[in-house]
Design brief:
heterodimer; A: about 100 residues; 5-stranded antiparallel sheet; 3 helices; about 30% helix; B: alpha+beta; Alpha-Beta Plaits; Sulfite Reductase Hemoprotein, domain 1
Chain lengths: ~100, ~550
């Protein structure tokens, strides 16, 4: 029995800034909650091909597992959690963005 | 301090121009990432978890004030106002944008610095004793020969695609402050009668398979050093395993073939190439040595030092902990701690960098050093100036009196930044330091080196920590393994694994139990943690780490 396909998002780093990005229905976002959640394997394969074709804008495209918290995709592994939230020692990168959102 | 020649300047300029063009071609889509990646790595540019990271070499850990000021300028202009000093005497910028990196490299070139060969399967930044040129116990200053090796290895055509990365460290003293036995090649300057030469150690390394280096030659003369090094790397280049990344370092080559076999091969290669070294290298070395003349030490009044020592307990504590013996008895070596309790080990803000540069200029003969323990050194400070230096440092959060103590922790960037990491290191270091500051115990505990790595590659040197901590991913949860009894000095030893790992919340209390157990076990306050461990072995420390197992066995 092949393993059932679990929900995933497509993620990469932006070529110019290096920031973690997620593929959305229309492009890319810095925020995991905007990501297009893929629940069908064939569709995910297709979206991967499309993402990899954008080699002049993104680097290191791959599929990352998520679980759904209501409508919001949440990482299943702590590494993806850190990628989505930024470093823990400074309010830099995505931590900086979150701080601004709270203000 | 070595000053670039016209040749060095021209080389760096053309190399930077090449990279600028490569970056442009990547951005306009002419180069794919697969094509670009080896080019950026050759120039020290990584892509990490959240951003690019530029790793800049600080050759043999030596800087002058204008170089330190330039590092601060780069941090402000193209990064987030700080830099991270590493265990290999590099500085890493964690947030550069791709488009800016060529400008950063040009700025570095203005002060004779670069990021070449700070990555890739090449000979990396040559490191040295951070007390070089100042230490009381030194046979000779290791920096001139380290500079010669930097020049020899930079862009060396034969050694640009080695089986794996290759690290060289040099010490000029019998006390090893450069961890030379954990390097691919470790060199120790030694005296034999009236002659100065090199003990050559090879095959040391940490990482997945930690090994203590083995002596290849007890004494190699100065003129034979470079041909010997070339022969070693040449033998490794051919013999080293390219079939398996995890077996590709020279430590495995030496382990699998035996030191005698390697020696025979190196001897044969040496005999073949020796004639190519016509003595030009020795002429170059003589020129380099002229750049490293010792500063003219001043005669001054030591009274301010004695007065501050007597009247200010904070200064006294700092002086007792952060100063080391200088070869000139009127002087001291100042270690500036980048380990303020609760801060990120090895990080300095641009303000702090500028202050250290100013202090070096005003009080320190314009010299600074970066230690592999992620601190900054002012190698030559007259004792009378120590109070002025201390109070200035203290005002910028740089006056922590903890060198060599439990909160002077080496920590790699771990999963807060590094794409290879399997767990975080920085928060663990921050919490241990904060906890022992609360307990007000660290000066009672005395010398104790904690070293933390966020993955098996061991950039945090955990194998040679008295207490080593290795962060791993255990079934999707961060887990921390403890090793005990490691030592990175001339008595180098690999730490012994204590038992099952701890979660991120359990690891701080576990370290606390270990240290409290040591306080109970030591025969007297002067017996260090490492001495107690060597006297008693693992068992009593294991009992402290795993009390529940003890209770179960007793039941």
């Amino acid at each position: 029995m092949p393993k059932p396909f679990t929900p995933k998002v497509i993620t990469a780093n932006a070529l110019l800034e290096g920031d973690v990005i997620y593929q959305t229905l229309t492009g890319w976002s810095r925020s995991l909650q905007d990501a297009e959640v893929l629940t069908d394997e064939a569709h995910a394969d297709l979206r991967m091909i499309e993402a990899e074709a954008q080699a002049d804008a993104v680097v290191g495209v791959y599929l990352a597992d998520v679980i759904m918290d209501g409508d919001v995709p949440t990482p299943t592994h702590f590494r993806e959690d850190f990628r989505a939230t930024g470093p823990s020692n400074y309010a830099h990168g995505k931590q900086e963005l979150r701080k601004q959102e709270h203000i | 301090m070595y000053h670039y020649t016209d040749f060095d300047d021209a080389f760096l300029k053309s190399r930077n121009a090449q990279f600028r063009a490569q970056v442009e071609r990547r951005i306009d889509g002419s180069l794919t990432e697969d094509e670009f990646k080896p080019l950026r790595l050759m120039n020290g540019l990584y892509l990490q978890l959240h951003a690019y990271m530029l790793r800049v070499a600080i050759p043999y850990g030596t800087l002058n004030s204008s170089q330190m000021e330039k590092l601060a300028y780069i941090a402000d202009k193209w990064d987030k106002g700080y830099g991270h000093f590493t265990t290999r005497q590099n500085i890493q910028y964690n947030w550069p944008e791709l488009r800016d990196v060529p400008d950063m490299l040009d700025a570095l070139a203005e002060v004779n610095m670069h990021a070449i060969q700070t990555s890739g399967n090449t000979i990396r930044n040559v490191t040295a004793d951070h007390f070089a040129g100042a230490a009381a116990d030194e046979v000779a200053d290791p920096r001139p020969v380290a500079e010669l090796i930097r020049q020899w290895s930079t862009d060396h055509p034969e050694f640009q695609f080695l089986p794996r990365k290759f690290k060289v460290a040099v010490s000029g003293a019998s006390a090893d402050r450069a961890v030379i036995k954990a390097h691919d090649i470790g060199l120790q300057i030694v005296r034999q009668g009236d002659d100065i030469g090199y003990r050559v150690i090879i095959g040391g390394g940490l990482g997945r398979t930690p090994m203590i280096g083995k002596v290849l030659y007890d004494f190699v003369s100065g003129e034979d050093l470079l041909p010997t090094l070339e022969a070693i790397v040449s033998v490794y280049n051919l013999l080293g395993r390219r079939d398996n990344k995890y077996k590709a370092r020279i430590k495995i080559t030496v382990h699998e073939n035996g030191i005698e076999d390697i020696r025979a091969r190196v001897d044969a290669r040496y005999n073949l190439i020796r004639d190519q070294f016509t003595g030009v290298d020795q002429q170059m070395l003589a020129r380099i040595e002229a750049d490293f003349v010792r500063p003219t030490f001043l005669k001054g009044d030591e009274a301010p030092y004695h007065s501050a020592y007597q009247h200010d307990p904070l200064f006294r504590s700092w002086a007792d902990t952060n100063l080391s013996d200088h070869r000139n008895p009127d002087y001291a070596i100042v270690s500036i701690s980048l380990k303020a309790h609760g801060k990120t080990p090895g990080d300095a803000t641009s303000r702090q960098m500028r202050l250290m540069a100013q202090l070096a200029k005003r009080y320190g003969h314009d010299e600074l050093r970066i230690s592999h323990e992620q601190n900054v050194i002012l190698p030559h400070v007259h004792k009378g100036d120590l109070p002025s230096v201390y109070y200035a440092l203290k005002a910028e959060g740089l006056g922590t009196a903890n060198i060599g103590l439990i909160s002077d922790i080496i920590a790699c960037p771990g999963m807060d930044y590094c794409a290879l990491a399997t767990a975080r290191s920085i928060p663990i270091a921050q919490e241990i330091a904060t906890r022992f500051d609360e307990l007000k115990l660290e000066h009672d505990v005395g010398p104790l080196k904690i070293k933390i790595s966020g993955c098996i590659n061991a950039c945090g040197h955990h194998h040679v920590g008295h207490i080593g901590i290795l962060g791993l991913d255990r079934a999707g949860v961060e887990n921390y393994q403890i090793t005990l009894g490691g030592d990175g000095t001339e008595d180098a030893a690999i730490g012994e694994r204590a038992g099952p790992g701890f979660s991120a919340t359990e690891i701080i209390p576990a370290v606390e139990r270990l240290v409290l157990a040591y306080l109970d076990l030591r025969t007297e306050p002067s017996e260090t943690f490492l001495q107690t461990y060597r006297r008693l072995g693992l068992a009593p420390f294991k009992a402290a780490l795993y009390p529940e197992t003890q209770a179960a066995n007793a039941a």
